[in-house]
TrEMBL record, chain A:
SUPFAM superfamilies assigned: Trm112p-like
Subunit structure: Interacts with TRM9.
UniProt name for this protein: Multifunctional methyltransferase subunit TRM112 homolog A
Species assigned in the record: Raphanus sativus
GO biological process: rRNA (guanine-N7)-methylation; tRNA methylation
Domain of life of the native organism: Eukaryota
Membership in a protein family: Belongs to the TRM112 family.
The keyword Transcription belongs to this UniProt entry's keyword annotation: no
PANTHER family for this protein: TRM112P-LIKE PROTEIN, UPF0315 PROTEIN-RELATED
From TrEMBL, chain B:
Coiled-coil residue windows: none
UniProt keyword RNA-binding present: yes
Ranges of Basic and acidic residues composition bias in the record: 457-467
Name of the protein in question: tRNA (guanine(10)-N(2))-methyltransferase
Cellular component terms (Gene Ontology): cytoplasm; tRNA methyltransferase complex
Gene expressing this chain: LOC108806922
Keywords annotated in UniProt: Cytoplasm, Methyltransferase, RNA-binding, S-adenosyl-L-methionine, Transferase, tRNA processing, tRNA-binding
Length: 122, 474
């Protein structure tokens, strides 16, 4: 699971109000190189919850992202590179996403988050 | 500029929409694109004239398309070779001479539709063109310019088309043609990980074209299965993302080298940005997330073979008010039971997802099952205030059932007011659909694997009420 995915997901158990961002429990993290596509990153930058991304990257051991959402990221090549690395090249292979409100763990196995709810959660 | 657009004689309903979608992709002005039929031709003919603003756009469309056999600059046409000659001679020299220059190479080929010509007959036709001042050298293998004589007879027996009243001959310069070499490379037979409802390669590419998948775009399939639709989008350069409720399909596959990932690896395509397990009835997208996907393409789970499931099944099945509680010790590896997912609900969720998550002008491309109407009653397709339906392409599966590929474009941003209008539209659709369901349980019968070859052979064996005209089966 890449951090772009993490940035899109929340805990949607019935009644949960603050299911985002999910905390990351990392057991196994890997890095894979991906082609750099600035257009795609510019599009994504506008959609990203910056704070959640910074936090998530840190929990996978990457702390190069600036704390505050950069104003002109779209023109800043070196920042786009960092964003690229954080969003697309870091993978949570094994671990879990944990709901900040209820503590419910959504397991991530072989890179696939299991976001399906139990019968009593819907 | 008018071009002669010659199509493959298959998937007839998909042909013009493909060209239209690609025209938009390559930046054609929507209001400029026009279609015209040759004299006496019926809409199902392989020959159409299309108006586009440049040769470059025509070439790009043809190259990327699956169903365009060729795009030609038309130099002349007629119902006989004499008429053809007159017509070519009136085509302006300024348009002809640049392609006839002495330092260029060329080739002339003869194409026929619904008839075969011997080698001698072909040569005779080519030799009749002496009135065109070709100065270049002939090069059969790699010519600079390719010219075509395209001939079609009035006989209708061989081609399954409605009768054309008149013989037609075209002469033109090729501008571009489809790269169908993609199809053998991507055919399902060679796919490592396959499921019963994997989308056949040709259809998957057509879907990706309807979705205008291209580099820098993000394409999502909420019912990803083995990923066959996303593979085609990735082949066209798009980033992909997929989800499925079935963890065995989306994560496990048949082992480490036979799963959704390996289907991308096999062709050297970039891996999906994400694969997830989730229920599209209760998607876990964070509430503030909007307009993130450029296209959503899918074959939703209608019917028995890949029956739709959704979470919370036990509750529904038992009909109890008390929630079923998963025992603490079983929670971690618990496999939630799932309930049936009706077509109406599935379509509702899909439209809702698309309304919220597609960028403006983003495209939703999906299959929808229909009962073939014998009495001409109109099929009601699902509607949503955020979407405009831009293409409807029917693929006939049997004497009773078809599936229709719907292409919708997001024309209104998603908002609270829209939500209410959408709810009303949905209720109406639901009511219509329930009425219609009483006539036959369609969504349990329609969805079969979409192998077009199979569909093709099937159609020969069943008794069609109108056996003579089989246009839409091809
Ligand atoms: C017709 S198949 C699509 C097959 C896919 N195009 C492929 O290439 O294999 C429908 C898929 O939807 C999944 N599905 C069924 N109900 C679902 C739900 N509620 N949410 C998400 N996926 C679901 C099924 O597991 C199945 O894989």
């Amino acid at each position: 699971m890449r951090l772009i995915t993490h940035n899109m997901l929340s805990c949607n158990i019935k009644g949960v109000a603050n299911g985002f961002p999910l905390k990351i429990e990392a057991e196994s993290v890997i890095e894979k190189e991906v082609d750099f596509n600035p257009d795609f990153l510019r599009h994504m930058f506008a959609k990203i919850e910056w704070k959640a991304l910074v936090e998530a990257a840190r929990s996978l051991g990457y702390s190069e992202l600036p704390e505050d959402s950069p104003a002109a990221a779209a023109e800043d090549e070196s920042l786009l590179k960092k964003l690229h690395h954080a969003l697309l090249e870091l993978h949570l292979e094994e671990g879990a996403l944990v709901c900040p409100e209820t503590g419910r763990r959504f397991p991530v196995t072989r890179g696939i988050p299991n976001m399906l709810l139990h019968e009593d959660e819907v | 500029m008018w071009f002669l657009c010659v199509f493959y004689h298959r998937l007839l309903d998909f042909r013009k929409p493909e060209v239209e979608a690609l025209a938009e992709l390559f930046g054609e002005d929507e209001s400029l694109l026009q279609w015209r039929l040759p004299e006496h031709h019926h809409n199902d003919t392989p020959f159409h004239f299309v108006h586009l603003s440049s040769e470059e756009i025509a070439r790009n469309i043809a190259k990327r398309s699956i169903l365009v056999k060729g795009m030609y600059e038309l130099w002349g046409q007629g119902s006989s070779y004499e008429e053809l000659k007159d017509s070519i001679q009136t085509f302006p020299d300024s348009r002809k001479l640049p392609f006839l220059a002495p330092d260029s190479t060329f080739r002339i080929s003869v194409e026929t539709f619904g008839k075969a010509l011997t080698f001698d007959e072909q040569r005779e036709r080519i030799n009749s063109l002496t009135y065109i001042p070709f100065q270049g050298k002939v090069n059969l293998k790699k010519p600079d310019h390719k010219f075509f004589i395209i001939e079609m007879d009035e006989s209708e027996e061989n081609n399954g088309l409605q009768p054309i009243l008149q013989r037609r001959i075209f002469f033109g310069r090729e501008v571009g043609f489809a790269d169908r070499k993609l199809l053998p490379t991507f055919q399902l037979k060679s796919r490592t990980y396959l499921g019963p409802t994997a989308m056949d390669a040709e259809m998957a590419f057509l879907m990706a074209n309807q979705a205008k998948a291209t580099s820098g775009k993000l394409v999502y399939d909420p019912f990803v299965g083995t990923g066959s639709i996303l593979v085609s989008a990735a082949r066209f350069g798009a980033m992909t993302m997929g989800a499925d409720i079935d963890i065995r399909v989306v994560r496990d596959g048949r082992g480490p080298d036979c799963n959704v990932w390996s289907n991308f690896k096999q062709y050297g395509l970039p891996m999906p940005v994400a694969l997830l397990r989730m229920d599209n009835n209760l998607p876990p997208w964070r509430s503030g997330l909007k307009e993130i996907f450029d296209a959503i393409i899918c074959d939703p789970p209608y019917g028995v073979r890949a029956g739709g499931r959704k979470s919370g099944g036990r509750k529904i099945l038992r009909g109890t008010v008390d929630p079923y509680t998963v025992p603490e010790d079983k929670r971690s590896d618990h496999i939630p039971s799932t309930g049936a997912y009706s077509l109406v609900e599935c379509v509702h969720d899909l439209l809702h997802l698309a309304a919220r998550m597609l960028v403006m002008k983003g495209r939703l491309v999906f299959f929808f099952p229909v009962l073939r109407d014998e009495n001409g009653s109109e099929v009601k397709f699902p509607e949503h205030p955020c979407f405009k339906l831009v293409a409807v392409s029917e693929q006939i599966l049997s004497s009773r059932y078809s599936r229709v590929l719907l292409t919708m474009v997001k024309v209104e941003p998603y908002s609270e007011e829209v939500e209410e209008a959408a709810r009303l539209m949905h209720l109406e659709f639901r009511e219509n659909h329930l009425k219609w369901l009483e006539e036959g349980n369609i969504h349990s019968s329609v969805f079969k694997p979409s192998d077009s070859c199979q569909v093709h052979t099937d159609t020969k064996s069943f008794k069609d009420p109108k056996p003579k005209y089989r246009g839409k089966y091809v």
